[in-house]
Design a protein that fits this description.
Elements (H helix, E strand, L loop, with lengths): L13 H15 L11 H8 L3 H13 L3 E4 L3 E4 L13 H15 L4 H15 L4
Antiparallel strand pairs: 1-2
Helix pairs in contact: 1-3, 2-3
Length: 128
């Protein structure tokens, strides 16, 4: 089961962080169609968010067509994002993990790594 992490310093709304984490989990193959998400109450408790924030995230996921709420049962993954490819076994994941390990060993902190990734993204994906 997925566990959500909220970065209160990111500048991104907490509910959007949940939406993004579900989308990333689907792309990485951590979540699949039929999997159940934790209850909104559990997510609120574990992340120390207002329950309405979690419900807003789940409503947005439903609006995107990625989950289906089944009253009295739970919220289940009903689809994967359009054009999603399973990335869990991608060689790029291993290469990126190796690169991040080298960056950390070289003394770079997350802000440094994030800046490098943002610069590379702008170079290779200028319309994102």
């Amino acid at each position: 089961m997925v566990e959500f992490r909220i970065d209160r310093h990111s500048g991104m709304a907490a509910y959007l962080q949940i939406v993004q984490q579900v989308q990333e989990s689907l792309r990485l193959g951590i979540l699949a169609v039929g999997d159940q998400l934790p209850t909104a109450a559990r997510v609120a408790r574990d992340t120390k968010l207002n329950p309405n924030t979690t419900l807003k995230a789940y409503r947005e996921l439903e609006h995107l067509g990625l989950v289906e709420a089944r009253p009295g049962v739970g919220t289940f993954i009903s689809a994967v994002p359009a054009q999603a490819r399973p990335l869990g076994d991608s060689p790029f994941r291993g290469e990126l993990s190796d690169w991040m390990g080298r960056a950390r060993a070289a003394g770079l902190d997350w802000a440094d790594v994030s800046a490098l990734v943002t610069a590379a993204r702008a170079e290779h994906y200028p319309t994102v």
